[in-house]
Amino acid sequence: MKQRNGTGWYAAATYVFAVGMAGTTLPTPLYGLYRGQLGFSELMVTIVFAVYAAGVIAALLVAGDFSDVLGRRPVLLAALALSAASAVCFLFEGGLPLLFTGRVLSGFAAGLFSGAATAAVLELAPSGSSGFAATAANMGGLGCGPLLSGVLAQYAPKPLMLPFLAHLGLLAVALVLTLVLPETVHRPEPRPPLRPRGMAVPRQVRPVFVPAGLACFAGFSVFGLFTAVSPGFLSETLHVGNLAASGAVAFSVFASSLAGQALMSRTGVARGLPLGCVGLVAGMVQVGCSLLVASLPLLVTGAVTVGIGQGLAFRSALSAVGERAPEEHRGATLSALFVTAYLGISLPVVGVGALSVGMGLRDAGLVFSACVIVLAAAVGFRLHRARG
């Protein structure tokens, strides 16, 4: 049964969600330091990053709806524990095994937060609220992670320890808040068995799902680029060694995505998806040009533009697929969309790392930019023709 106790619980749940998601992007500005300390290649950086997405996908497929059965608080507590365990792995890392373990645990945590925390924020929202705080907590947390670690790593001692100690402190506050949050789920007795919900795309949804999924794939691949490889672009191509600047660039993508999602209320779903694709194309053109001419301002404007496009396309895709999917298959269909998105955040960025071994990071980034431009333009053109 829902319990609404005003904006206090709403704000508390939003904080828990944001802090949990911040941990998933905390290592972004630090990958260069790990490379120098452990001596691995840019390809290995992208693989370390990508195993996070594997953890998210596994959690979504196996436990995506567990909070509907167990309640929100138990699942949130499990997610916080996994997030803390991830931070501990980074604190005590002595090589790649703990880095991989930390990233996988972080992915598991993000997968649990995605369902349970979103639901908790929406259910604790004051009457009349649109629940936009759920999206703000998700994207805002993802953006604040690299900003926090970049500032601490640049201007405070122990750059590979202090960001994770700070996050553990934030998680401790989130733990206390979670323990006192009102439970919003009436747990049935006897408890039904916990079963993986899997994913499915009914035949009648596929005409909408295919372009929506491709747009999500393209948009999330840009997230992968900026959270895994952009620090390398800044240091190697643009010769910017400031870790706070690296974190700020990653932050700008997520903050702009939030702005793009807010725009959908004005554009509507039908216009939002093709317009989002236009934003992806325009942004990646700027990112590609920034690599060609070694321009930090162009990289930043490209990050903002591509973030707005990603946010607009992503929220429009969620709405379009959610509206078309039958109620009895809606959760499984949206799971398939999220899996498509998280494949986008992982596979292409590993490709960038592999290409960088042979052709250098800048040229690999140019190839990636061209691929995203072609994919987003093709999806946008198809959607435009369908509307016409």
TrEMBL record:
One of its GO terms (molecular function) is transmembrane transporter activity. It comes from the Bacteria. It is found in: Cell membrane. Pfam families: MFS_1 (PF07690). Residues 8-387 form the Major facilitator superfamily (MFS) profile domain. InterPro entries: MFS, MFS_dom, MFS_trans_sf, MFS_Transporters, Sugar_transporter_CS. This is MFS transporter. It comes from Streptomyces cacaoi.
